[in-house]
Structure formats: C-alpha cells, structure tokens
Amino acid sequence: MARFADVIEEFNGRVKVVMAGSTRAGVLSCVLILFAAGGCETASGPHGPPGDLLDRAVTDYEAGRYETAGGRAGEAMRSATGPQREDAAYLAGLSSYRVGRVDEAERRFMIASASSRPETAGKAAAMLGIIRLDQNRPREAAALFEKAEGLLAGPEAIRAAEHARLARRLAGTPAVAGGFDYAADAPSTSPSGLFALQVGAFRDAAGADRAAQSAQEIADRAGLGAVRIVASADERGGRLYLVQFGRFASRSAAAVVRNQIGRLEYIVAPLQAMAVGH
Predict the structure, then answer these.
(1) How confident is the model over 212-261, as pLDDT tens digits?
(2) Domains of the chain, with CATH numbers?
(3) Quick count: other Cβ atoms within 10 Å of Cβ 223?
(4) What is the reported pLDDT for 175?
(5) Beta bridge partners of 19
(6) pTM over 0.90
(7) What is the SS3 string spanning the chain?
C-alpha cells in the first residue's frame, strides 16, 4: 500500500510536522493544502479504481497538472463511496480552484466538508472560508474557519483560528458591518484603497519576524517587493503583528497572484501601508 509523507511548515516558527498514511486513509496528507507546503513521496503498490485514479491525481496535482488532476479526481469522486469520495472531492476542488473555476471548486468542497473524516471536512471547510473571503463575505468565512479549527489539530487548527480572527476583524469594519456589501471587488477599507497578501497575524514580534523572513523569498521570486510587518490590534485591543506583501488594486487581482504563487493559505486583506518598529 502506498505511503505518503507531508511536511507541514508552520509559519510562526517553521515547525515541521510529518504525517503519513495510505491513499485510502487520506489523500489529503499528500497534496498542497491550505495549511501545508511541501511535496509527497509515493511507493508503488497495487491499487484498484478509484484508489489508483486518486493516486495518479495526487501525482498530477503535485506536478502542477491541475486540469489533469481535477479530471482524475472527479472521476474517482464519481466512482467512489464514503470517505474516499469526499477525499477525491477535496482534491478535485483544489484542482478547480487552482485553475480559476471557483464555482466548481465550491461545489466540490461542499461535498468534502460533509466527510466523516475530520481532516477532510476541516480542510474543505477552511478552503470554503478562503473562497468566502475572496468574495468579501467575512462573516461566513469566520464561521467556516471556526468549523475547521474544531476539526483540525496542531498547526492546522492554529492557522484556522488565525484566519477566523482575521475574518471577524474584517466583518467588523465599516465597509461590511451592517451593509452586507459582499461584492467580490468591494473597495478596500485601507486608506490607500489597495489590497495585499497577508501571511498571518501574530501575537509576538518574533513570530512575525520569522514569518516575514520566510515569505520574503516567495515575494522576491514573484517580484512583489518587501514584506511588511505592521502593528495592529485584535477585536479586544490586544497587540497583533500583521505580515503582508504586495500591492493590488482589487481583491480579485490579489487572489489571482496568490493562486499563481501557490500559497492558498495567504489571505487577501486591506493593505496596511505603515510598517512600524517593534
């Protein structure tokens, strides 16, 4: 039976956690996901359909062949039952999302979010949260991230909680509170009117520094300039450090670049232009 290894790199501290399992026990431990970055290793072994289709879909996804991965995962989803069907739906959703078919991705993530496997359901809920943020629907996004937090464990649960906090903060801003302005390209609440890719929001300056150093390599490769650390506050007035980079005229433009660089865990947020010392 094939074995998979997935290295999960937590942004604040670069803590590495290794998970392993068979394809049938959870294809999600192999693919690039919301809270993970890294490849997978496979060993050959006998697989019948739809397990074989799912194995091949994972390989295609890791190689950047998203159309092919989506087709194979979709076929596996149609022929499988139970948790394996939902695993296939999740991978099919990721593939659709990476090629810009958001409506199709959303339908597939909805199937996966009903999985009896907590990891599958949690990651699908988190991806639905990302989609809701892209649509400027932060209240719904917060609820989905909170669901993901309850289903996931370790660094992934921590990341879901961070995303939930950000979504709640966005829901409380004048641009969305009370008015329910859910247009995907509603104006930014930043004084500049621009958006950025937000790596995370950190309680401690050291964690923000580590995240900024890691993200700078990605920003440099994409030609997106310097990573900024901005002091902010949470909904209770507590200190937060936001790590952001890039400047985009619209939410959708920022989302396109985020998907191109392959960092689905980054959130599109109003640009905070004033980096401050700490």
Answers:
(1) 999 999 999 999 999 999 988 776 777 888 999 999 998 888 988 988 88
(2) 4-156 (1.25.40.10), 187-278 (3.30.70)
(3) 7
(4) 39
(5) 6
(6) no
(7) CCCEEEEEECCCCCCEEEEEECCCCCHHHCCCCCCCCCCCCCCCCCCCCCHHHHHHHHHHHHCCCHHHHHHHHHHHHHHCCHHHHHHHHHHHHHHHHHCCCHHHHHHHHHHHCCCCCHHHHHHHHHHHHHHHHHCCCHHHHHHHHHHHHHHCCHHHHHHHHHHHHHHHHHHCCCCCCCCCCCCCCCCCCCCCCCEEEEEEEECCHHHHHHHHHHHHHHHHHHCCCCCEEEEEECCCCCEEEEEEEEEECCHHHHHHHHHHHCCCCCEEEECCCCCCCC
How much is the pLDDT for 261?
87
Q: How far apart are the first and last CA of the chain?
A: 51
